[in-house]
Specification:
Length: about 180
């Protein structure tokens, strides 16, 4: 009957092991995202004042990154130097300023630099909902045919660019 005393300990160890597995598994949302392998949803949004606008339909024939960001978003500011480096390396990036105004979005870009070839505003979140965005920032790799090849939820880092973004661009012959 002493083995019955061990049941709570065994349950606790198994639960702790499962929790550790879930928490320590690397974040690779592009492998399970419903949009990966699908056509990027089309949308028409207003361009930020003084900025070039775009829609996914207009960008067919070009591989690019689609970045959802906001001037109100601290992680967006953290990832911004990575976007600036990607743009300097020749990667086309288009931005959706989510829940933002032209004035705030432009102030953010004036202060930190503009890596985007086009910036549109999504104040109500209509396009963001279509994309399934859960929070800012999120970045999508879109190929020449308008197919989502990868998605990253959270700020881009040099490691994420190396492991997720560049391989998605390169393996599709897009760079």
């Amino acid at each position: 009957m002493n083995w019955l005393r061990l049941i709570p300990v065994v349950v606790l160890v198994v639960t702790a092991g499962l929790l550790a597995f879930v928490l320590l598994t690397p974040n690779t949302p592009s492998q399970t995202d419903r949009l990966v392998g699908e056509t990027v949803p089309d949308f028409t949004l207003e361009a930020a004042a003084g900025r070039q606008g775009f829609s996914p339909q207009e960008l067919r024939g070009e591989a690019y990154l689609l970045n959802v960001w906001g001037s109100w978003c601290p992680p967006c500011e953290v990832e911004h130097p990575v976007l600036m480096q990607l743009a300097a390396d020749g990667v086309p990036i288009y931005g959706i300023a989510w829940r933002d105004t032209s004035a705030r979005a432009n102030a953010f870009l004036v202060r930190l630099g503009n890596p985007f070839e086009g910036v549109v505003l999504d104040p109500a979140g209509a396009a963001v909902i279509e994309l399934g965005v859960t929070g800012a920032p999120e970045t999508f790799v879109i190929d020449r045919d308008g197919i989502v090849r990868a998605r990253w939820a959270g700020p881009l880092t040099d490691d994420v660019v190396r492991r997720v973004i560049l391989p998605a661009l390169e393996t599709r012959g897009q760079r």
